[in-house]
Design goal:
Helix content is about 35%, strand content about 20%. With about 525 residues, it is an alpha+beta fold. The strands form four sheets. The protein has a five-stranded mixed beta sheet with strand order 2-1-10-5-6. Strands 3, 4, 7, 8 and 9 form a five-stranded antiparallel beta sheet that branches. It has a four-stranded antiparallel beta sheet with strand order 11-12-16-15, with no helix packed on it. α6 packs antiparallel against α7. The termini are far apart. About 0% of the residues have low confidence.
Length: about 525
Protein backbone atom coordinates (compact mmCIF):
# COMPACT_ATOMS: atom_id res chain seq x y z
CA UNK A 1 0.00 0.00 0.00
CA UNK A 2 2.78 2.42 0.92
CA UNK A 3 4.64 1.61 -2.29
CA UNK A 4 1.54 2.32 -4.40
CA UNK A 5 0.99 5.61 -2.59
CA UNK A 6 4.66 6.49 -3.07
CA UNK A 7 4.35 5.91 -6.81
CA UNK A 8 1.21 8.05 -6.83
CA UNK A 9 3.10 10.74 -4.91
CA UNK A 10 5.69 10.86 -7.66
CA UNK A 11 3.03 11.17 -10.35
CA UNK A 12 1.27 13.98 -8.46
CA UNK A 13 4.61 15.75 -7.97
CA UNK A 14 5.33 15.43 -11.70
CA UNK A 15 1.89 16.80 -12.52
CA UNK A 16 2.49 19.71 -10.15
CA UNK A 17 5.83 20.45 -11.75
CA UNK A 18 4.33 20.54 -15.27
CA UNK A 19 1.33 22.62 -14.20
CA UNK A 20 3.40 25.22 -12.34
CA UNK A 21 5.89 25.31 -15.22
CA UNK A 22 3.05 26.05 -17.65
CA UNK A 23 1.91 28.91 -15.43
CA UNK A 24 5.47 30.25 -15.25
CA UNK A 25 5.86 29.95 -19.04
CA UNK A 26 2.90 32.25 -19.73
CA UNK A 27 4.78 35.53 -19.04
CA UNK A 28 7.94 34.21 -20.69
CA UNK A 29 6.58 32.46 -23.80
CA UNK A 30 4.68 29.19 -24.34
CA UNK A 31 7.62 27.58 -26.14
CA UNK A 32 9.65 27.79 -22.91
CA UNK A 33 7.51 25.13 -21.22
CA UNK A 34 9.54 22.01 -20.33
CA UNK A 35 7.66 19.51 -22.52
CA UNK A 36 7.92 21.79 -25.53
CA UNK A 37 11.55 22.64 -24.81
CA UNK A 38 12.60 19.02 -24.32
CA UNK A 39 10.60 17.95 -27.37
CA UNK A 40 12.30 20.61 -29.46
CA UNK A 41 15.71 19.50 -28.19
CA UNK A 42 14.88 15.91 -29.12
CA UNK A 43 13.90 17.01 -32.63
CA UNK A 44 17.11 19.04 -32.93
CA UNK A 45 19.18 15.97 -32.12
CA UNK A 46 17.20 13.43 -34.11
CA UNK A 47 19.27 11.77 -36.88
CA UNK A 48 17.89 12.44 -40.38
CA UNK A 49 17.03 8.77 -40.91
CA UNK A 50 14.94 8.66 -37.72
CA UNK A 51 13.29 11.96 -38.56
CA UNK A 52 12.35 10.58 -41.97
CA UNK A 53 10.97 7.44 -40.31
CA UNK A 54 8.75 9.56 -38.06
CA UNK A 55 7.45 11.69 -40.92
CA UNK A 56 6.88 8.63 -43.10
CA UNK A 57 5.03 6.62 -40.47
CA UNK A 58 3.25 9.27 -38.41
CA UNK A 59 2.90 12.12 -40.92
CA UNK A 60 1.72 15.35 -39.30
CA UNK A 61 1.01 13.40 -36.09
CA UNK A 62 4.75 12.94 -35.47
CA UNK A 63 4.81 15.80 -32.96
CA UNK A 64 1.87 14.37 -31.02
CA UNK A 65 3.63 11.01 -30.87
CA UNK A 66 6.78 12.73 -29.58
CA UNK A 67 4.88 14.66 -26.89
CA UNK A 68 3.10 11.50 -25.73
CA UNK A 69 6.44 9.72 -25.60
CA UNK A 70 7.95 12.50 -23.47
CA UNK A 71 4.97 12.42 -21.08
CA UNK A 72 5.27 8.63 -20.80
CA UNK A 73 8.96 8.91 -19.90
CA UNK A 74 8.17 11.64 -17.37
CA UNK A 75 5.48 9.44 -15.81
CA UNK A 76 7.96 6.57 -15.37
CA UNK A 77 10.52 8.96 -13.94
CA UNK A 78 7.90 10.33 -11.54
CA UNK A 79 7.03 6.84 -10.31
CA UNK A 80 10.71 6.10 -9.78
CA UNK A 81 11.39 9.25 -7.73
CA UNK A 82 8.23 8.61 -5.73
CA UNK A 83 9.50 5.17 -4.76
CA UNK A 84 12.93 6.63 -4.01
CA UNK A 85 11.38 9.23 -1.71
CA UNK A 86 9.67 6.45 0.23
CA UNK A 87 13.10 5.29 1.44
CA UNK A 88 15.08 8.51 1.14
CA UNK A 89 12.71 11.45 1.40
CA UNK A 90 15.22 14.21 0.76
CA UNK A 91 17.04 12.39 -2.07
CA UNK A 92 13.78 11.56 -3.84
CA UNK A 93 12.58 15.14 -3.62
CA UNK A 94 15.93 16.43 -4.82
CA UNK A 95 15.75 14.04 -7.79
CA UNK A 96 12.78 16.05 -9.08
CA UNK A 97 15.22 18.88 -9.64
CA UNK A 98 16.78 16.75 -12.39
CA UNK A 99 13.53 17.37 -14.28
CA UNK A 100 14.10 21.10 -13.92
CA UNK A 101 17.73 20.89 -15.00
CA UNK A 102 16.87 18.94 -18.15
CA UNK A 103 14.04 21.29 -19.08
CA UNK A 104 16.05 24.43 -18.38
CA UNK A 105 19.04 23.18 -20.36
CA UNK A 106 16.83 22.21 -23.28
CA UNK A 107 15.01 25.55 -23.28
CA UNK A 108 18.14 27.70 -23.17
CA UNK A 109 20.00 25.46 -25.62
CA UNK A 110 17.44 25.72 -28.41
CA UNK A 111 18.35 27.91 -31.41
CA UNK A 112 16.00 30.66 -30.19
CA UNK A 113 16.73 30.01 -26.50
CA UNK A 114 17.26 32.79 -23.99
CA UNK A 115 18.21 32.73 -20.31
CA UNK A 116 14.65 33.55 -19.11
CA UNK A 117 13.44 30.41 -20.92
CA UNK A 118 14.96 28.36 -18.08
CA UNK A 119 12.60 29.90 -15.53
CA UNK A 120 9.49 27.73 -16.14
CA UNK A 121 11.40 24.46 -15.76
CA UNK A 122 13.21 25.65 -12.63
CA UNK A 123 10.06 26.96 -10.94
CA UNK A 124 8.11 23.85 -11.90
CA UNK A 125 10.82 21.54 -10.54
CA UNK A 126 10.94 23.38 -7.22
CA UNK A 127 7.17 23.09 -6.91
CA UNK A 128 7.30 19.38 -7.78
CA UNK A 129 10.09 18.74 -5.27
CA UNK A 130 8.12 20.50 -2.54
CA UNK A 131 4.99 18.47 -3.27
CA UNK A 132 6.90 15.18 -3.22
CA UNK A 133 8.61 16.10 0.05
CA UNK A 134 5.23 16.90 1.59
CA UNK A 135 3.52 13.73 0.37
CA UNK A 136 6.39 11.40 1.19
CA UNK A 137 6.32 12.77 4.74
CA UNK A 138 2.75 11.50 5.04
CA UNK A 139 3.97 8.02 4.17
CA UNK A 140 6.39 7.73 7.09
CA UNK A 141 5.56 4.80 9.42
CA UNK A 142 3.23 5.89 12.21
CA UNK A 143 4.04 5.26 15.87
CA UNK A 144 1.67 2.97 17.78
CA UNK A 145 -1.23 5.12 18.90
CA UNK A 146 -4.62 3.75 19.79
CA UNK A 147 -6.38 2.34 16.77
CA UNK A 148 -3.41 2.74 14.39
CA UNK A 149 -1.19 -0.27 14.10
CA UNK A 150 2.60 -0.02 14.30
CA UNK A 151 4.18 0.29 10.87
CA UNK A 152 1.14 1.96 9.32
CA UNK A 153 1.02 5.50 7.97
CA UNK A 154 -1.29 8.47 8.07
CA UNK A 155 -3.65 7.43 5.27
CA UNK A 156 -6.11 10.22 5.88
CA UNK A 157 -3.36 12.85 5.99
CA UNK A 158 -1.91 11.48 2.77
CA UNK A 159 -5.26 11.53 0.96
CA UNK A 160 -5.94 15.10 2.07
CA UNK A 161 -2.45 16.30 1.10
CA UNK A 162 -2.59 14.50 -2.24
CA UNK A 163 -6.02 15.97 -2.99
CA UNK A 164 -4.93 19.51 -2.11
CA UNK A 165 -1.77 19.20 -4.21
CA UNK A 166 -3.69 17.84 -7.18
CA UNK A 167 -6.38 20.54 -7.05
CA UNK A 168 -3.84 23.32 -6.59
CA UNK A 169 -1.75 22.01 -9.47
CA UNK A 170 -4.78 21.74 -11.72
CA UNK A 171 -5.66 25.32 -10.86
CA UNK A 172 -2.13 26.49 -11.69
CA UNK A 173 -2.26 24.63 -14.99
CA UNK A 174 -5.62 26.09 -15.93
CA UNK A 175 -4.48 29.60 -15.01
CA UNK A 176 -1.36 29.11 -17.10
CA UNK A 177 -3.40 27.94 -20.07
CA UNK A 178 -5.74 30.92 -19.67
CA UNK A 179 -2.86 33.39 -19.63
CA UNK A 180 -1.25 31.72 -22.63
CA UNK A 181 -4.60 31.72 -24.43
CA UNK A 182 -4.93 35.45 -23.83
CA UNK A 183 -1.58 36.06 -25.53
CA UNK A 184 -2.57 33.85 -28.45
CA UNK A 185 -5.94 35.54 -28.69
CA UNK A 186 -4.25 38.81 -29.68
CA UNK A 187 -2.51 37.05 -32.56
CA UNK A 188 -5.72 35.32 -33.64
CA UNK A 189 -7.58 38.64 -33.52
CA UNK A 190 -4.94 40.26 -35.73
CA UNK A 191 -5.46 37.50 -38.29
CA UNK A 192 -9.27 37.77 -38.17
CA UNK A 193 -9.12 41.53 -38.72
CA UNK A 194 -6.74 41.29 -41.66
CA UNK A 195 -8.23 42.14 -45.04
CA UNK A 196 -5.96 41.02 -47.83
CA UNK A 197 -5.22 43.63 -50.50
CA UNK A 198 -6.26 43.03 -54.08
CA UNK A 199 -3.24 41.83 -56.06
CA UNK A 200 -1.52 44.44 -58.21
CA UNK A 201 -0.16 41.53 -60.23
CA UNK A 202 -2.88 38.83 -60.25
CA UNK A 203 -2.07 35.19 -60.93
CA UNK A 204 -2.37 34.37 -64.63
CA UNK A 205 -5.74 32.91 -65.55
CA UNK A 206 -5.64 29.12 -65.63
CA UNK A 207 -6.22 27.69 -69.09
CA UNK A 208 -9.25 25.58 -69.79
CA UNK A 209 -8.39 21.96 -69.06
CA UNK A 210 -5.93 22.59 -66.24
CA UNK A 211 -8.17 20.40 -64.07
CA UNK A 212 -8.95 16.96 -65.53
CA UNK A 213 -11.83 16.14 -63.18
CA UNK A 214 -10.85 12.49 -62.70
CA UNK A 215 -12.31 10.93 -59.56
CA UNK A 216 -9.60 10.22 -56.99
CA UNK A 217 -7.16 12.70 -58.55
CA UNK A 218 -5.62 15.40 -56.33
CA UNK A 219 -7.35 18.75 -56.93
CA UNK A 220 -5.38 21.36 -58.83
CA UNK A 221 -5.48 23.66 -55.78
CA UNK A 222 -4.83 22.01 -52.42
CA UNK A 223 -7.24 23.32 -49.75
CA UNK A 224 -5.50 24.94 -46.80
CA UNK A 225 -6.83 22.32 -44.40
CA UNK A 226 -5.30 19.55 -46.53
CA UNK A 227 -1.98 21.24 -47.29
CA UNK A 228 0.92 19.27 -45.85
CA UNK A 229 2.76 20.53 -42.78
CA UNK A 230 6.28 19.39 -41.95
CA UNK A 231 8.27 21.47 -39.43
CA UNK A 232 9.89 21.19 -36.01
CA UNK A 233 7.47 23.40 -34.04
CA UNK A 234 5.78 21.42 -31.25
CA UNK A 235 3.74 24.53 -30.45
CA UNK A 236 2.54 26.45 -33.51
CA UNK A 237 3.72 30.05 -33.03
CA UNK A 238 0.96 32.63 -32.69
CA UNK A 239 2.44 35.93 -33.85
CA UNK A 240 0.51 39.19 -33.62
CA UNK A 241 0.71 40.83 -37.05
CA UNK A 242 0.71 44.26 -35.40
CA UNK A 243 3.86 43.43 -33.43
CA UNK A 244 5.61 41.57 -36.27
CA UNK A 245 8.88 42.93 -37.62
CA UNK A 246 11.23 41.74 -40.36
CA UNK A 247 14.88 42.76 -40.38
CA UNK A 248 16.98 42.51 -43.57
CA UNK A 249 20.72 42.88 -42.97
CA UNK A 250 24.11 41.25 -43.36
CA UNK A 251 26.92 40.93 -45.86
CA UNK A 252 26.47 43.13 -48.91
CA UNK A 253 23.44 44.98 -47.47
CA UNK A 254 24.44 48.66 -47.52
CA UNK A 255 20.96 49.81 -46.45
CA UNK A 256 19.59 47.44 -43.76
CA UNK A 257 15.85 47.75 -43.26
CA UNK A 258 13.24 46.76 -40.69
CA UNK A 259 9.71 46.28 -42.01
CA UNK A 260 6.35 46.10 -40.28
CA UNK A 261 3.40 44.08 -41.52
CA UNK A 262 1.69 47.28 -42.67
CA UNK A 263 4.81 48.14 -44.65
CA UNK A 264 4.36 44.90 -46.61
CA UNK A 265 0.66 45.50 -47.18
CA UNK A 266 1.41 48.91 -48.69
CA UNK A 267 3.72 47.42 -51.28
CA UNK A 268 2.82 45.97 -54.68
CA UNK A 269 0.98 42.71 -54.00
CA UNK A 270 1.82 39.74 -56.24
CA UNK A 271 -0.40 36.66 -56.59
CA UNK A 272 0.95 33.39 -57.97
CA UNK A 273 0.09 29.68 -58.12
CA UNK A 274 3.12 27.79 -56.77
CA UNK A 275 3.58 24.14 -55.85
CA UNK A 276 5.62 23.40 -52.73
CA UNK A 277 7.39 20.12 -51.98
CA UNK A 278 9.05 18.80 -48.81
CA UNK A 279 12.43 17.12 -49.15
CA UNK A 280 11.10 14.39 -46.82
CA UNK A 281 8.58 13.35 -49.45
CA UNK A 282 9.19 9.73 -50.43
CA UNK A 283 8.52 8.63 -54.01
CA UNK A 284 4.74 8.77 -54.34
CA UNK A 285 4.42 10.56 -50.99
CA UNK A 286 1.86 13.15 -49.84
CA UNK A 287 4.13 16.05 -48.89
CA UNK A 288 3.49 18.17 -51.95
CA UNK A 289 0.71 20.68 -52.55
CA UNK A 290 -0.32 23.55 -54.78
CA UNK A 291 -1.70 26.87 -53.52
CA UNK A 292 -2.38 30.41 -54.67
CA UNK A 293 -0.03 32.66 -52.71
CA UNK A 294 -0.29 36.42 -52.18
CA UNK A 295 2.68 38.51 -51.07
CA UNK A 296 5.48 40.78 -52.19
CA UNK A 297 8.54 40.01 -54.27
CA UNK A 298 11.52 39.28 -52.06
CA UNK A 299 13.98 40.31 -54.78
CA UNK A 300 12.49 43.82 -54.83
CA UNK A 301 13.05 44.22 -51.09
CA UNK A 302 16.62 42.97 -51.38
CA UNK A 303 17.45 45.32 -54.22
CA UNK A 304 16.03 48.28 -52.30
CA UNK A 305 18.38 47.33 -49.46
CA UNK A 306 21.25 47.43 -51.95
CA UNK A 307 21.72 43.69 -52.37
CA UNK A 308 23.27 42.41 -55.61
CA UNK A 309 23.08 38.83 -56.81
CA UNK A 310 26.39 36.90 -56.96
CA UNK A 311 26.20 36.99 -60.76
CA UNK A 312 26.15 40.79 -60.47
CA UNK A 313 29.16 40.93 -58.16
CA UNK A 314 27.32 40.67 -54.84
CA UNK A 315 29.44 39.29 -51.96
CA UNK A 316 26.68 37.15 -50.39
CA UNK A 317 25.58 33.88 -51.97
CA UNK A 318 23.32 32.67 -49.13
CA UNK A 319 20.19 34.19 -47.64
CA UNK A 320 19.58 32.90 -44.09
CA UNK A 321 15.92 33.17 -43.09
CA UNK A 322 15.13 32.92 -39.36
CA UNK A 323 11.80 31.97 -37.86
CA UNK A 324 10.38 33.06 -34.51
CA UNK A 325 10.75 29.43 -33.37
CA UNK A 326 14.50 29.48 -34.03
CA UNK A 327 14.50 27.61 -37.33
CA UNK A 328 17.10 28.74 -39.89
CA UNK A 329 16.88 28.07 -43.63
CA UNK A 330 19.60 28.85 -46.15
CA UNK A 331 18.55 29.88 -49.67
CA UNK A 332 20.80 30.66 -52.64
CA UNK A 333 20.66 34.41 -53.24
CA UNK A 334 20.97 33.83 -56.99
CA UNK A 335 17.77 31.76 -57.03
CA UNK A 336 15.84 34.44 -55.15
CA UNK A 337 16.99 37.19 -57.52
CA UNK A 338 16.97 35.40 -60.89
CA UNK A 339 13.47 36.55 -61.83
CA UNK A 340 11.39 33.70 -60.40
CA UNK A 341 8.39 34.51 -58.22
CA UNK A 342 10.12 34.31 -54.83
CA UNK A 343 7.60 35.80 -52.40
CA UNK A 344 7.19 36.93 -48.85
CA UNK A 345 3.66 35.55 -48.66
CA UNK A 346 0.91 36.66 -46.31
CA UNK A 347 -2.05 35.12 -48.16
CA UNK A 348 -2.85 31.52 -49.09
CA UNK A 349 -5.79 30.48 -51.28
CA UNK A 350 -7.66 33.72 -50.75
CA UNK A 351 -7.27 34.03 -46.97
CA UNK A 352 -4.55 35.19 -44.56
CA UNK A 353 -1.94 32.52 -43.98
CA UNK A 354 -3.14 29.92 -41.46
CA UNK A 355 -0.99 29.89 -38.33
CA UNK A 356 0.13 26.34 -39.18
CA UNK A 357 1.50 27.63 -42.47
CA UNK A 358 3.39 30.64 -41.18
CA UNK A 359 1.13 33.59 -40.31
CA UNK A 360 1.82 36.42 -40.57
CA UNK A 361 4.59 36.03 -43.19
CA UNK A 362 6.48 33.15 -44.77
CA UNK A 363 8.84 32.64 -47.69
CA UNK A 364 7.81 30.86 -50.88
CA UNK A 365 10.54 30.20 -53.48
CA UNK A 366 9.51 28.01 -56.42
CA UNK A 367 11.90 25.32 -57.57
CA UNK A 368 13.53 24.60 -54.20
CA UNK A 369 12.60 22.10 -51.51
CA UNK A 370 10.96 23.70 -48.50
CA UNK A 371 13.85 23.18 -46.09
CA UNK A 372 15.99 25.65 -48.08
CA UNK A 373 13.29 28.09 -49.13
CA UNK A 374 9.95 28.08 -47.31
CA UNK A 375 10.67 29.62 -43.89
CA UNK A 376 7.46 30.01 -41.87
CA UNK A 377 6.85 32.62 -39.13
CA UNK A 378 9.64 34.66 -40.70
CA UNK A 379 11.30 37.36 -38.60
CA UNK A 380 14.84 37.90 -39.93
CA UNK A 381 16.78 37.71 -43.21
CA UNK A 382 20.55 37.80 -43.10
CA UNK A 383 22.77 37.87 -46.18
CA UNK A 384 25.92 35.76 -45.77
CA UNK A 385 27.83 33.00 -47.59
CA UNK A 386 27.50 29.22 -47.66
CA UNK A 387 31.11 28.97 -46.48
CA UNK A 388 30.42 31.13 -43.44
CA UNK A 389 27.20 29.58 -42.14
CA UNK A 390 25.36 26.25 -42.15
CA UNK A 391 21.60 26.47 -41.59
CA UNK A 392 19.63 24.12 -39.32
CA UNK A 393 19.13 21.18 -41.69
CA UNK A 394 22.58 21.45 -43.28
CA UNK A 395 24.06 20.82 -39.83
CA UNK A 396 22.02 17.61 -39.83
CA UNK A 397 23.43 16.05 -43.01
CA UNK A 398 21.13 17.62 -45.62
CA UNK A 399 22.50 19.36 -48.71
CA UNK A 400 23.09 23.09 -48.81
CA UNK A 401 21.40 23.49 -52.19
CA UNK A 402 18.27 21.52 -53.00
CA UNK A 403 16.47 22.09 -56.31
CA UNK A 404 13.25 20.08 -56.57
CA UNK A 405 13.64 16.80 -58.46
CA UNK A 406 11.24 15.71 -61.18
CA UNK A 407 8.56 13.40 -59.81
CA UNK A 408 5.25 11.84 -60.87
CA UNK A 409 2.70 10.20 -58.58
CA UNK A 410 -0.19 7.84 -59.21
CA UNK A 411 -3.24 9.01 -57.26
CA UNK A 412 -5.74 6.56 -58.73
CA UNK A 413 -6.14 3.64 -58.65
CA UNK A 414 -4.90 3.36 -55.08
CA UNK A 415 -2.46 0.62 -54.05
CA UNK A 416 -4.15 -2.78 -53.79
CA UNK A 417 -7.35 -1.45 -55.34
CA UNK A 418 -9.63 -3.91 -57.17
CA UNK A 419 -10.99 -2.15 -60.27
CA UNK A 420 -13.10 -4.06 -62.75
CA UNK A 421 -11.73 -5.19 -66.10
CA UNK A 422 -12.13 -2.70 -68.92
CA UNK A 423 -11.06 0.92 -69.27
CA UNK A 424 -9.55 2.15 -66.00
CA UNK A 425 -8.29 5.74 -65.71
CA UNK A 426 -4.79 5.83 -64.24
CA UNK A 427 -4.23 9.40 -63.09
CA UNK A 428 -2.06 11.53 -60.89
CA UNK A 429 0.13 14.61 -60.69
CA UNK A 430 3.68 15.39 -61.79
CA UNK A 431 5.94 18.26 -60.76
CA UNK A 432 9.31 19.78 -61.58
CA UNK A 433 9.00 23.30 -60.22
CA UNK A 434 10.65 26.04 -62.26
CA UNK A 435 11.21 23.59 -65.14
CA UNK A 436 7.68 22.39 -65.78
CA UNK A 437 6.40 19.02 -67.00
CA UNK A 438 6.46 18.15 -70.72
CA UNK A 439 5.56 14.44 -70.71
CA UNK A 440 4.23 11.69 -68.44
CA UNK A 441 4.33 8.00 -69.30
CA UNK A 442 2.77 4.91 -67.72
CA UNK A 443 3.61 1.24 -68.13
CA UNK A 444 2.08 -2.01 -66.92
CA UNK A 445 4.08 -4.98 -65.62
CA UNK A 446 7.35 -3.67 -67.01
CA UNK A 447 5.98 -3.45 -70.57
CA UNK A 448 6.21 -0.57 -73.04
CA UNK A 449 5.68 3.01 -71.92
CA UNK A 450 2.39 4.70 -72.88
CA UNK A 451 2.06 8.49 -73.08
CA UNK A 452 -0.49 9.93 -70.66
CA UNK A 453 -2.76 12.82 -71.52
CA UNK A 454 -1.58 15.96 -69.77
CA UNK A 455 -3.80 18.66 -68.35
CA UNK A 456 -3.33 22.13 -69.82
CA UNK A 457 -0.16 23.69 -68.34
CA UNK A 458 -0.77 26.26 -65.61
CA UNK A 459 2.87 27.32 -65.46
CA UNK A 460 6.31 25.87 -64.87
CA UNK A 461 6.11 26.41 -61.09
CA UNK A 462 2.90 24.37 -60.79
CA UNK A 463 2.26 20.65 -60.77
CA UNK A 464 0.43 19.14 -63.71
CA UNK A 465 -2.34 16.58 -63.72
CA UNK A 466 -2.24 13.61 -66.09
CA UNK A 467 -4.38 10.59 -67.01
CA UNK A 468 -3.96 7.41 -69.06
CA UNK A 469 -6.91 5.22 -70.04
CA UNK A 470 -5.77 1.71 -69.23
CA UNK A 471 -7.41 -1.28 -70.96
CA UNK A 472 -7.23 -3.38 -67.80
CA UNK A 473 -7.34 -7.17 -67.89
CA UNK A 474 -8.07 -9.50 -64.95
CA UNK A 475 -5.21 -10.34 -62.61
CA UNK A 476 -2.57 -8.66 -60.47
CA UNK A 477 -0.71 -5.84 -62.21
CA UNK A 478 2.02 -3.33 -61.37
CA UNK A 479 1.59 0.21 -62.68
CA UNK A 480 4.60 2.55 -62.96
CA UNK A 481 4.84 6.20 -63.91
CA UNK A 482 7.65 8.53 -64.94
CA UNK A 483 7.79 12.18 -65.95
CA UNK A 484 9.93 14.33 -68.21
CA UNK A 485 10.55 17.94 -67.28
CA UNK A 486 10.53 21.04 -69.44
CA UNK A 487 14.23 20.71 -70.23
CA UNK A 488 13.70 17.25 -71.76
CA UNK A 489 15.25 15.33 -68.83
CA UNK A 490 13.32 12.21 -67.75
CA UNK A 491 13.30 11.31 -64.08
CA UNK A 492 15.66 8.54 -63.10
CA UNK A 493 14.53 5.03 -62.21
CA UNK A 494 17.26 4.78 -59.57
CA UNK A 495 15.70 4.49 -56.13
CA UNK A 496 17.22 6.78 -53.50
CA UNK A 497 15.99 7.93 -50.12
CA UNK A 498 15.22 11.48 -49.15
CA UNK A 499 18.58 12.23 -47.51
CA UNK A 500 20.49 14.35 -48.45
CA UNK A 501 18.60 16.19 -51.20
CA UNK A 502 15.34 14.42 -52.08
CA UNK A 503 14.10 10.98 -53.13
CA UNK A 504 14.35 9.57 -56.65
CA UNK A 505 12.73 6.65 -58.48
CA UNK A 506 9.51 5.78 -60.26
CA UNK A 507 6.29 5.55 -58.31
CA UNK A 508 4.46 2.24 -58.66
CA UNK A 509 1.24 0.69 -57.37
CA UNK A 510 -0.01 -2.90 -57.43
CA UNK A 511 -3.69 -3.50 -58.23
CA UNK A 512 -5.84 -6.62 -58.57
CA UNK A 513 -8.22 -6.34 -61.51
CA UNK A 514 -11.36 -8.43 -61.09
Amino acid sequence: MRAACAALSGVIAGFSALAVAELAAAPVRPEAGPVTAVGGAVIDRTPPALKDFAVRNFGTDDKLVLELGILAVLALFAVAVGLLALRHRLAGSAAVLVFGAVGATAAVGRPEGRVPDALPSVVGALAGAGVLYLLSGRLAPARPAGERAAGGFDRRGFVVAAGVATVASAGAGLLGRRRTSAVRADAEASRRKLRLPAPDSPAPALPSGAELGVRGLSPFVTPNKDFYRVDTALVVPRVDAGAWRLRIHGKGVPRPVTLTFDDLLRRKAVERDITLTCVSNEVGGPYVGNARWLGVRLADLLREAGVRAPSEGGPADQLVARSVDGMTLGTPVEDVMDGRDALLAFGMNGEPLPFEHGFPVRMVVPGLYGYVSACKWLKDIELTTFDAYDAYWVKRSWSRRAPVKTQARIDTPRPFASPGAGTVPVAGVAWAQHRGISRVEVRVDGGPWHPARLAAPGGRDIWRQWVWEWPATPGSHTLEVRATDGTGATQTARRAGTVPDGATGWHSVVVDVS
